[in-house]
Request: fold
Amino acid sequence: MSTTAIQTKHNFSAGPAILPKEVFAEAAQACLNFNNTGLSLLEMSHRGADFVAVMDEALALVREILSLPDNYQVLFVGGGASSQFFNVPMNLLNDGETAAYVNTGTWASNAIKEAQAYGKIEVVASSESDQFRHVPKGYPIPADARYLHLTSNNTIYGTQLFDWPETNVPIVCDMSSDIFSRPVPIERFGMIYAGAQKNMGPAGVTLVIVREDMLGKVNRHIPTMLDYRTHIKKGSMYNTPPVFPIYVSMLTMRWVKAQGGLDAMEARNFAKAQALYTEIDANPLFHGTTATEDRSWMNATFVLSDDSLNDAFLADCKAAGIVGLKGHRSVGGFRASMYNALELGSVHALVEVMQTFARKHG
Reply:
């Protein structure tokens, strides 16, 4: 079938999300003939030399891009980031110990709910009272907490952490929606986990980075498949790993490195966020929904002053090839997700539609 008639889309979907076009092209080829073997990657043994090389490179790229010290281990596991909501406390928290959590949205709330089965969970701060429109700051952190759990970016409500708490308590962070989007002070973290389907790859694999001294401290029995040490010992191949998502993640990390690494990603993402938020603030028909200082660079949330115009605006976006802009069903409005691979030109296309819409309806 010819693809010449397919219109280029500006994809603002919150996830599964846009990835670099060259990654899609190489991944598609791998499905047909991987490394000129005459076999699809999808039918090859994960124990064979071809995929072992993929796994080795993927693990090495995580280390290189994030500048990981030797005492951090890198894992690729299944189950999505939501499975880490219980896996984290199962591996890190004894029944009588305390873990501190900050509630900044739906995913943080879910993490809190799951963790309560494994120890004492203290919610040290929450922005629920204002519908998660800001990120709490200046809250006390119990000195005896086993860890402090944060969610670095909130896809539904459009907030993001830009300053990490000053504490000696190890930070455990869900970075599912902003992993590899900017540099992070890795030494502050005891653990980072991230679902792939925003900035790293397709749905189906979760990245876990854990400092070695965080493990082996709990008394409970941990099922073999849920014990991080199992996957460390077996190089993320205790069982058949999610081969294709890991391969696409490897290709995406190659792309991040080729673009200039995390400093380049930060500059790229700042430019996109600045362009869109400048228009939101200047346009008389639109306004943002979160505290200005906490606005996410990944997921910009905004609404029309007159919501009766929502369908007309989405129709104009569709006509311009802009997709994935409708807000999460729990909050409504609009959400423009601007992950690493989204080009600045797509943001400019959205801004142009917003300006034209204001001229027609203002």
About this structure: The radius of gyration is 21 Å.
